Amino acid sequence: MDGNGTYGRRVDALRSRLTATGAHALIVAPGSDLAYLSGYHALPLERPTLLIVRSDGPVALVAPLLERARAREEVLLDDVELHCYGELDDPFALTVDVLLQSTGPFDHAAPRRDDHDAGAVGERGGAQPAGREVLVGEQMWAGFLLQLQKRSGLLRWSSASAAMAHVRRRKDDEELRLLARVALAIDAVHARVPDVLRAGRTEREVADELAALIREDHDTVDFVIVASGPNSASPHHEPGPRTIVHGDAVVVDIGGSRDGYRSDMTRTYVIGEVPEGFADAYVALQAAHAAAVAAVRPGVTAGAVDAAAREVLDRAGLGDAFVHRTGHGIGLDTHEAPWIVAGSDVVLEPGMTFSIEPGFYLEGRHGARIEDIVAVTPDGVDVLNDVPRDLVVIA
Ligand code: ZN
Ligand code: ZN
User: Fold this and answer.
1) Which residue of 26, 33, 91, 356 is 20 to 30 Å from 245, comparing CA positions?
2) What share of the chain in percent tops pLDDT 70?
3) Whole-angstrom Cα distance, residue 328 to residue 278?
4) Which value, to the nearest 10 degrees, does the dihedral of the CA atoms of residues 232, 237, 240, 244 take?
5) Which of 106, 100, 87, 99 minimizes the C-alpha distance to 45?
6) Mind listing the pLDDT tens digit for each residue in 34-79?
7) Cβ contacts of residue 394 below 8 Å, gap of 6+?
8) Which of 369, 373, 365 is nearest to 322 (CA)?
């Protein structure tokens, strides 16, 4: 049950958005959108589980019969209509039926027989109102959408990305608490990296040990990047058999989830001796990170935050080596809106949470990145990670 009304408020906010944009309904498959709206972490099976929010009717969940007990137990949103289907039923036809059920006045304006644009006879023989827009969550498999389209006559399908980002990108107090909590959990792992990372071990060995440390205070390990020596110039390097040696720069970017919310944090380490040319570049990187964090406050655009980091690296001659955006939103997903990217006119608002992670990558030589998660507060910024950002030289 939705004890403190969290899920009800989220659905209300979404319904307002649907009404404002004239969309009839939104449909999402298992994933973070479905969990955000209902509390249900449904399994992504070949048998579809689909949550439907109509602008003018109750929320409905279409689910396989064998998931009924779990759905009843785990859906926290109140007053959800549960429509279960058996092994021989057509879940997509059922979903289209549910989408077309409506209690609002629009539904009573039956299509006229003499107006070909007002209605159509669908495959299943029912009259379908023309032109109703259904927003589809981006985590729905293409195969499901193709099945729905085949059965849905004149419904118009479009992306739910903007509507979901609109409601999800400002975190409520409980979400902020969970993000701060999981940030502390990953801080604790980075604080122990100097015990794990040393010359003579392979990236894979270090990554395995870090994964075990992440698991101590997270529910899942989402990714472990250990990129040593020349591999540190590849931002998403997969840890491999390379043996770490004296004089390596090592980028360690790690994250997991706790109570559904994600951590994501990067520090760069050096083994024994700082590589030639690295120290000055790292000083510029630290300044770029600090400039971007300092730029974060309500009313500023995401593009301006990206520019703050980029200007510092440009001045240091590292502009071309900063090959990615400055950051990404984080919450139930590791990467979600808002995107802290050049040219973005998204205006920051209190409750938005995202990474600040400038880097430089010099192919064949080395690279570095500093990444923290920040939250926009009513008058500025709260940095959720708290491990020093100075270059750590491991003896
Ligand atoms: Zn990140
Ligand atoms: Zn990261």
Assistant:
1) 356
2) 93
3) 26
4) 10
5) 87
6) 999 999 999 999 999 999 999 988 999 999 999 999 999 999 999 9
7) 194, 197, 198, 269, 270, 271, 272
8) 369
In order, the DSSP letters of 211-269 are: HHHHHHH-SEEEEEEEEEGGGGGSTTPPP-SPBP-TT-EEEEEEEEEETTEE--EEEEE
Cα separation, 272 vs 245, whole angstroms: 9
Distance between Cα 236 and ligand 2 center (Å): 9
Distance 265 CA to ligand 2 centre (A): 5
Task: For residues 19 and 217, give the distance between their C-alpha atoms in angstroms, rounded to a whole number.
Answer: 41
CA of 257 relative to ligand 1 center, distance in Å: 13
- CA 339, CA 363: separation in Å to the nearest integer? 26
Closest among 257, 209, 234 to 373, alpha carbons compared: 257
Q: How far apart are CA 359 and CA 261, in angstroms?
A: 24
274 alpha carbon – ligand 1 mean position (Å):
25
**Shortest CA distance to 240 belongs to which of 254, 255, 228, 258?**
228
The per-residue pLDDT for range 369-394, each reduced to its tens digit, is: 999 999 999 999 999 999 999 999 99
| Model pTM above 0.70 | yes
Q: Nearest Cα to 44, choosing from 25, 28, 59, 65?
A: 28
Q: Tens of pLDDT along 277-327?
A: 999 999 999 999 999 999 999 999 999 999 999 999 999 999 999 999 999
Query: Residues near 217 by Cβ (< 8 Å), separated by ≥ 6?
Result: 185, 188, 189, 258
How much distance in Å is there from the Cα of 327 to the middle of ligand 1?
6
Mean residue pLDDT of the chain comes to 92
Percent helix, strand, coil in the chain, to 5, is 35, 25, 40
Model confidence at 128, pLDDT cuts 50, 70, 90, reads low
